[in-house]
């Protein structure tokens, strides 16, 4: 394998690992587990984000028709009393729907199943779901692609700098893709989902926006440091490390959230 192919392979593996971790560790990734009800193991998958105008479905596969269920929910974060929705049977599953909330509104919820005197409540700690507006796939798909490629080229630039190879073309691709994905398409998605163009510094503490801002500043410094065709290997390596670390932070952490008790 050639030197360049080896570096590309390493960059791809590192980027895929970072993107995978970011996805599965985020607060909007479905919550999975299992519970025991009257001798039957019930597997559950509870969604923690919902887009569009409808209610959020809750569906638990339970083969035994004698098992009944309900969903307890309340707005999050509040100390409001729990409200309960009786689940109805739909073939081999029990189903219910959490009431629609405005964009950035959150609910916490738990499911309780029972058969006779035997009952199970799950998850042990209530799942928190966030509602959002309908995001266009025509905007979301290129945003995700641009951000993934920006991470890839960033990592490749860092590896090139590490082995003292020319990283200039990777730097420019990183900056262009980060600009398009993070600072053009990103705000459009934020507007469609939550009604705000930007909720990071200086307007808020949305971690997704702030991660993008930090990465943008890191690579802007690389452009400054490399003017006049200087190699700027230290700046490139530092920016690549910053980008790799911050984009490994779970997606949607500290995201947009309605403070229900605050005046609006």
What is the residue-averaged pLDDT?
Answer: 92
Helix content: 40-55%
Gross geometry:
elongated
Structural class by helix and strand composition? alpha+beta
Number of domains: 2
Compute the number of strand runs: 10
Tally the helices: what do you get? 5
Indicate the proportion of strand residues.
25-35%
In which order are the strands of the major sheet placed? 3-10-9-5-6
Unreliable residue stretches: none
Explain this structure.
The protein has 264 residues and is α+β, with helices and mostly antiparallel strands. It folds into two domains: 3-26 and 135-246, no CATH class; 38-132, Immunoglobulins (Immunoglobulin-like, Sandwich), CATH 2.60.40. Helices cover 41% and strands 27% of the residues. The chain has five helices and ten strands. The strands form three sheets. The chain has a five-stranded mixed beta sheet with strand order 3-10-9-5-6. A three-stranded antiparallel beta sheet has the order 4-8-7, with no helix packed on it. A two-stranded antiparallel ribbon has the order 1-2. A hairpin with a 2-residue loop joins strand 1 (31-37) and strand 2 (40-46). Helix 1 (3-24) packs across helix 2 (137-162) and helix 4 (207-225) runs antiparallel to helix 5 (233-246). The longest helix has 27 residues, at 168-194. The model has no long low-confidence stretch (mean pLDDT 92).
């Amino acid at each position: 394998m050639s030197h360049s192919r080896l570096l590309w392979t390493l960059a791809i593996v590192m980027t895929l690992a970072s993107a995978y971790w970011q996805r599965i560790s985020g607060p909007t990734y479905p919550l999975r587990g299992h519970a025991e009800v009257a001798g039957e193991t019930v597997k559950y998958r509870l969604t923690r984000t919902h887009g569009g105008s409808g209610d959020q479905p809750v569906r638990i596969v339970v083969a035994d028709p004698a098992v009944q269920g309900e969903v307890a929910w309340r707005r999050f974060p509040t100390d409001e009393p729990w409200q309960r929705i009786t689940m109805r049977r739909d073939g081999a599953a029990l189903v219910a729907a959490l009431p629609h909330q405005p964009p950035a509104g959150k609910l916490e919820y738990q499911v309780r199943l029972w058969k006779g005197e035997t009952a199970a409540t799950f998850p042990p700690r209530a799942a928190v779901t966030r509602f959002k507006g309908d995001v266009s796939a025509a905007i979301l798909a290129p945003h995700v692609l641009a951000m993934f490629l920006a991470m890839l080229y960033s990592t490749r630039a860092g590896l090139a700098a590490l082995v003292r190879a020319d990283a200039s073309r990777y730097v420019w691709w990183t900056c262009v893709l980060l600009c398009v994905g993070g600072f053009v398409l990103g705000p459009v998605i934020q507007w469609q989902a939550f009604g705000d163009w930007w909720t990071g510094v200086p307007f808020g503490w949305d971690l997704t926006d702030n991660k993008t801002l930090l990465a943008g500043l890191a690579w802007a410094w690389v452009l400054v440091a490399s003017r006049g065709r200087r190699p700027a290997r230290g700046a490139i390596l530092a920016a690549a490390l910053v980008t790799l670390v911050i984009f490994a932070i779970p997606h949607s952490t500290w995201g947009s959230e309605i403070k229900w008790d605050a005046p609006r």
